[in-house]
Structures are given as C-alpha cells and as structure tokens.
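ok trying this again, last paste got cut off
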Amino acid sequence: MHSGFYFLTLDAGTSGGRAAIFDGMGRQAAVAAAAWDYERPADAAPWGRAFDAGRFWNILAGLARQALAQANVPARQVAAVSVTAQRGGMVILDRAGAALYAGPIQDLRGVYQAAALEETCGERLAAISGHGPALIFAPARLQWFREQQPDLFSRFATLLTISDWLIFCLSGARCTEPSAAADTQLFDIRQGAWSAELMSTLALPAALFPPVHVTGAVVGAVSPAAAAQIGLAAATPVVMGGADTQMGLLGMGMTAPGEVGILAGWSMPVQQVTAAALDARRRLWVGPHALPGLWVLEGNAGPAGRAYAWLAEVMCGRPDFAGLEEMAASVDPGAGGVLAFLGPQPMNAAEMGLAWGGLLMPLGADFIEVRREHLARACLENIAFAARANLELVTELSQAPVVQVAVGGGLTRSRVWTQMLADVLGRPLRVSALPDASSRGAAISAAVGAGLYPDLATAAAAMTRDDVSVTPARVALAEYLDLYERWQRAREQLDALGQRID
C-alpha cells in the first residue's frame, strides 16, 4: 500500500557512514556504505580524536548518490530524509556555520578536566543527564577547550550532536532532539530540556545549545546546496531522527515498556524501554526513548562487533567473517573449555577504565588441544554472555518483567551467534530482518514526518513486520546455563587479578 513512498536515511556511525533508501513498508531498496577513521590531533595527544567534518559530509553525500542510483528512485519520489548517528560525539559551529570542532566519543582529550569535574559535580552530572562518567562526554571536552584553546572556545556558537549536525548539513537548521542530546551529559532527561543548572555550574552560555524537537518532526527542508550534493530535490522535508541506539529500538519495533532491544554492532547496548526515567545508580545509563513519555535503561557491553572484527583480522589476516562463522559452527557449545574475555563485559559506568582480558584455555597432556575453531566460538560466546549479563543488570534495576527481546546490528548476520544468543538468554528472540536497524528507525521517523503514518509507534509496527523469530535449542539451553555461570565466575576472578596487577 505504501510502496510508492521512499525515504533516504543518513547514518554517521562509529566505524563508517551509510546511506539507505527505504520504502513505506520498511523494506530497504538500496544501501551504500564506506569506512572512515579519525585524526589524532597533535595538540591533544595522546588521547585526542577528531574528524574532518567536511570530509565526512562529502563521504555521506557520495553514499546518498550511490544509494539513489542503486535503488533507481527518482529524486522526486523521495518523500523525506532523516538521520541517525553515533552517540557521544559532537560538532561545534561558529556563528557562520563553520565547524570549529568535530569529534567522536573516543575523543578523550579532557581526561584531566574530567577528573576535576567528577570531584566537583560528578553526582549532579549523572543525576541530571542519566550518563557518566564525564570523561567521554561533552563537559570534559568543553573544559579542555576553555583551558587549552581559549580563543577557539570564545568562538563556539552552537553545540550539535553528530546526528544534529547531519540535519544542519541537509537544511541549515540548528536543532536537536532528546535521545541524542542526552549523550552530551548536559541535557536534563526528566525535563526534556537543556539543563539550566549544569549550564550555570559549568559556566556555559545558554546560546550554545540549540532548540529541542521530537523525533519525527519536520525541522526544515533540503537546501539547494545540499540537494546538489546528495542528488535530492531541493525542499525535500528534513525530519528529525535521533541517536543510533534509540533509532535501533525503533527499527526493531521496541516501543512499549518492558520491551528490550540489543543492538549488536560495533558496540552492544542492551536497552529496556521503561515508563519512567529511573535512577541508574551511576552503574548504567538512562535516557529518553524516541517516543515521548518513554525512557530507556541501558547496560552497554562495549566493543562487541569490534572484538569479533579484531579476532577475524588476527586469525584470518583479514575480516573474513564467513570463515570465522564456519569455524565457530564446527565446535560444540563451550568451545572446548575455552573462555574469552575480549572486550564485551557487564557495564559499570562508575568504574570505566582499563580492563584486563584475553583467552583462558585448558592445557591438556599434549600441551594445547585448542584450535582456531574453539577461539572463534569462544569469542561469540563471550559476546552472548555479556549481553545476558547486561540484561540481568538492567532488569535487576528496573524491576520490570521482560516482555520480549529483539536484536539487530551487524552481528545478526551471524546465524550461529543469533541462535547462540537465544540459547544463552533462554528465551525467543525477535531478530531484525535488517541488521541495520538504526537506519530503518530513521526511515520510520521520516515516514512519520512525511505524514505516511500518524505516529512513531504505528509506523514502527507497520515497517518491522518482516522481522523473524529464533527460539532456543533445548539441549544447548541446558548447557549454556552452566557455561554462563562458569564464565561469570572466571570473569570475577579476572577482574580481581586485574586489580592486583594494576
């Protein structure tokens, strides 16, 4: 019924950019993607990271043209465009709209400033914003610029999250929305507005912070300049999207309290939808859902896909995920006794820092009987175990029953892992038909902005009907009950060992 409508989505992810075309039923007509990396500014060494905003925009514009060409969709048939992006990064503009700073969440130049902020106002930062520690968010970086580059700091006019910046590139509008703004650590998640208290505490001008709109709202139109770059018609509606995790929840159809979404991509947030903004006790994160009046409680397991990609490079010399998948499938649950601790772990936002990890393996009479296949499966099991550990943390704090669990992200391309996750969690999984759930969430936002659906919940229900279900295998379910407890015991011992080493 709605297949004649098309929507363009832009996604500025952690490891690369993506442009996709969707129809009104949520089907992906085309996608184009490219990897990117970050600069290491000499004046912010060794922890500083940044990116060239113009270069990233040019990459995304080129990807948009590719996607439109692949889909063979005329520009006039694109009803709206929306965006999503990695969280925690930001682009700061001057009054004329030039990018004075662009950096991802990995920009830790404010490490010393963060320590001071934690001591003076860390509790209030976390209580108001639902996020911490200060090290990875905007306040520490802003303080670094104030101290280290005061002339540049004096020219800061507008702070945008990376998804907000995409809106600006498309339309010239300077605005934000709650799900992305919450990851600046300067947004009052309960008031749905920039925090006046934190502005005062940190001596930040109110003019630095843009107006707030809701996801799905039309906030502007594609400018003639942007239209020429990306191949759309000028005046195409630009619709507010949001943070990649909340767009992922939307793209997996998780729009009601109790529902859980696991976005298993480069990192792995485990989020439960809640009816109130809970106290995360500084261990987890809490933030706004894309739907007004709902929130999410998040346990973030950290680098999931990144750890798997690292293992592929180490064992195969290249990102041969099909080969790694074949290896993992050839080994029984338990990976021959091998336990992996390669990044993903239970979240503790109050104690983020260097963690010790690696591989534990049994040494038999013939020294080592472990093969590459065991390592591949152990790595996937580690990711699944970390997902369960974070889900347990979330539900322990929320005290809310889990209605259903959905999973999306690049790791869902692995049938071995999605089945393993169902076995480890001991419950049926709703698996996104598209690994790129965040882009589909942005398409859902665009469809609402274009008037195709009356609200986000209705659009999400209609545009995620092709998701599939994976049920636990009875034999593996029983095995993984014991294996998960073994992994937890070993992880606790490894944490204790790491503290002694430090």
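PB: full thing came through this time. The CA atoms of residues 2 and 24 lie 5 Å apart.
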